[in-house]
Amino acid sequence: MADESIQNGDSQASNGDITMAEPEPLPSASNGTDVEEKKEVKLEDLFADVDSDDEEFPSSRPQETQPSSSPTAAPGSPLETGGISLKASDPEILRSFYQRLFPWRHLFQWLNHSPTPTNDFAHREFALTLQNDVWRRYMSYPTSDLMRKEMLNLLPSRIEIGPVYTTNPRDRKTVRNASAFRPVAKELCFDIDLTDYDEIRTCCDKANICQKCWRFMVMAVKVVDAALREDFGFKHILWVYSGRRGIHAWVCDKKVRTMDDQKRRAVANYLEVIKGGSQGGKKVNLRRPLHPHISRSLDILAPYFQTDVLATQDPWSTPDRAAHLLTLLPDRPLTTALQNKWDASPGRSSAAKWADIDAVAKSGASKSLDARQLLEAKQDVVLEYTYPRLDIEVSKKLNHLLKSPFVIHPGTGRVCVPVDPRRLDDFDPLAVPTVQELLAQIDEWKDEEGGDESPVKEEGDAEIKKEDGVKRSNIQDWEKTSLKPYVEYFRSFVLALMKDERDARVKREREEADGMDF
Amino acid sequence: MLRQDFNRIDPKRRNVVDHRKKQFADPAYKQTDYPHRLNFYAVPPTADITLEQFEQWAIDRLRVLAELEACSFRNKTLAETAAHMKPLLEKYLPLDSNSSSSSKLSAERQKDHYSHFILRLAFASTEDLRRRFTRVETMLFRLRLNDDTTLAKERNAFVQSLNLEWDPVSDEERREYASELAALSGFRKGVQEEENWFKVDWERVPDLVEGRRVFLRAGKAYVPSRESTSMVIAEFTKRLERSLELTARALPRLDEDDRLTPILDHLSKNFITPDASYSSSTSSVPGADISAKNVDALSSSFPLCMQHLHRSLRRDAHLKHFGRLQYTLFLKGIGLNLEECLIFWRTSFHKITDDTFNKEYRYNVRHSYGDVGGDSNRRGGGYSPFSCQKILTEHPPGPGEAHGCPYRHFNLENLTALLQQVGIQDRSVLQGVKEDKEAQKFHMACNRVFEHVHKNEIKRAKDDGILTSAQLETIVHPNEYFKRSYLLKNLGKGGQDVKMEEA
């Protein structure tokens, strides 16, 4: 019941917003309350057009939603026109994206943990980076509609999510004493960034990535995901591609959200293996026998080490990189023997060098060599070159801000899409749709279907009809694009989360009711 | 099942007199008896003591705690601390076990109990004091708990009495996870067979989880019995933190008592160590030209950690977050004002544009100086410069980061290389540093280097009798290092001698 009322709320809002954009709003679609807002937004749209002052596509907004009578001429998204592509942070692009593609309702449900608005959402901090690079913290919204509306006004290039506070973050200055305003809950977050792999990756550096070094992220996700699920028993873990070179994890279980900093630190340090700065020397120093978490991680990582590190990255091809490998191995006679061997045949591949270690050790180059010590050193090397390098500070603090899923990365234009850890190997960061592509896809889709369907649908409506399997024409914009699988995955994630929360609530209520009986 | 709330006073000790007879009844207070040597301080004392006892007991305990804190500042190991504390504890706060035939058992335990609660009152007022009090009280508790090892039976009885709700791990589970559990108990071969395992929610033993000292499965931590000590200690800390907060809330009611408040005030003021009270007013050096363009010249007086940051900054024209933080606060501590500091960072980050600098870095520098941020930050003038303690224990540097303490966070080769780069070639010093590092006495290493670098000046100052005894103490703060170094190097330059004595 509650669910439906929200959907209604949603649909009304989208109704309002959509009619605003149409050049000739249908009288039936507008009700009295919407009129004022309509005018307001229309005005803004006009200004936006003046601002962009691009002769090639005048008033692109209204045209975009117009039933396209002439498919070729209608520039649905601004980037199509004349091969000029607009930057992803362009206000027009952002407006279309937030209006037509961003899954506001799912985001709301994800943070709200229930279909009816609660303080979980209303007291949640959002931080926005606006068009002029102004950074606004402590924003909050009671419902997804109001959030959507304000985002369409502000068009932030970046939305970050902070913790839930004891009171509404907007009211923080009005609380009497400072301690009455403090963060109480947030997902446990992890941030893994490929820049931290610069020491060991050879294909790219800095902000660049390619398929080869993305494999490090695959390894990282597998290890962290396994540990969080098996060891800690966390269930709701959302992995999100950060848009350029990293990946975020949001652990959303109820118990996790209320953890204090000490427990967050405990989880973070439990997972951290690679330690020490650039001057620290050996970065992996582990107690033996290996902790079950480490040995499991090693089992996961070993195959990747062979293929993705040794063969693909070829990490020890140059002499100075090979010298680093030698510093990680014990026993001086062994390392000098290896050094001599590699000096004699330059250009030896890393796989061959790795094999050489055992070969030389077996050949008895060193009398003092301890076989177990060597094995342990080799395990450490494997870990140093494969084990996840977490940006640990993100995880340790309850009140850390992290970029929201589905935001557009301003540099690449890619959408920060959720990644299904079960289908991780299929995920290609370079194939993640950019916002410009997505907007183009909406237009193309229209072209294929002919101009008969009405341009914009209400969110709630579309879903109901789709579930009934009656009509396909009522389709939301994101379903016309390659964003579809990502939104669908996100939705299923949110639904599972909400189900668990509801079950817990029902159970508690039942227990309380039982308690009353006695 | 509802978990018992440990904080509640034993219901029997509450006033259970029939309310109709209440006004005529004697209060239900009673003399607590102390069956165990150790105490979780769950129940506040209720008997009468004299005002003299009140003050004396508190002072005695304070002496012990202050010394404990000093031990931790000097990075003493647990064993060293125990040895150091033994005579002090015997003098001020003796606590004998049940098996000893001491006739003063009850009196000793009463003193321990009462003094703890008196100090609770004294140290509950601010967050900072509460944190420090919890830390040292936990240290004391740990010391005593470990001290008890000879009397395992007594200790176990104490642990049993706490009702900690630990589930034993069944034989089935032990078989199922045999290899994992063996990996954890593998440190001591042969013991694992008889070792007992407990199973608790992992949230209850975060420190064990953090150190990977337990086996985790589906949110449960499997704890070997030998780790129970740290579980008991974690529980102790947790309860103490919680009750201190309750105490803080009750404090205002104490205002009416004009006998106790002055004593308590006095007590908490005495619990201030050089580390905590480090303020810019005491650290700045009079007469020095501390400006952005002069930092290069001054950097020869910086401790190694700051020299390394400075060199990294000059090499990369960039520092990562914690590096910037550590260095900014240090510079603030030596007296670089905000404007100069901003100039310093702007010119140092010469590879980036003004825009990027203003957007990404300016705010943080201003925040460190308390120029922006929340009320408390602005009022407090930003953060205080990091002490060695903080640098050594918090935020170890990760990949690509240059902060931290080189003596601790570098490996030996890199440390030696760095020392040689800053001009320390003396083999005996390098050897000494190596030994200090191996013994984890990072302060000693740093002070050793200080003494070597300044050996001529120190000699002269000693000959002239300028140095006060306080200035010969171990350096436990990077800003103290700079101050002493700078003053020593500028000894002869008129007028400084007087200031030396003042300082």
From TrEMBL, chain A:
- Known Pfam families for this protein? DNA_primase_S
* Annotated Low complexity bias: 67-78
Q: What class of enzyme is it?
A: transferase
E.C. numbers: 2.7.7.-
List compositional bias (Polar residues) regions by residue number.
1-17
Biased segments, Acidic residues type:
46-57
What's the protein name? DNA primase
TrEMBL record, chain B:
Tell me yes or no: is Metal-binding among this UniProt entry's keywords. Answer: yes
Q: Which Pfam families match?
A: DNA_primase_lrg (PF04104), DNA_primase_lrg_N (PF26466)
Q: Would you say which domain of life the source belongs to? A: Eukaryota
**Record CDD domains:** PriL_PriS_Eukaryotic (cd07322)
Q: Give the residue spans that cross the bilayer.
A: none
Free-text comment on the cofactor: Binds 1 [4Fe-4S] cluster.
Required cofactor(s): [4Fe-4S] cluster
Q: Which residues form the DNA primase large subunit C-terminal domain?
A: 300-482
Checking Gene3D superfamilies in the record gives: 1.20.930.80
The alphabetical list of record keywords is: 4Fe-4S, DNA replication, DNA-binding, Iron, Iron-sulfur, Metal-binding, Primosome
User: What exactly does this protein do?
Assistant: DNA primase is the polymerase that synthesizes small RNA primers for the Okazaki fragments made during discontinuous DNA replication.
Annotated family: Belongs to the eukaryotic-type primase large subunit family.
Q: What is this protein called?
A: DNA primase large subunit
What species was this sequence derived from?
A: Apiospora rasikravindrae
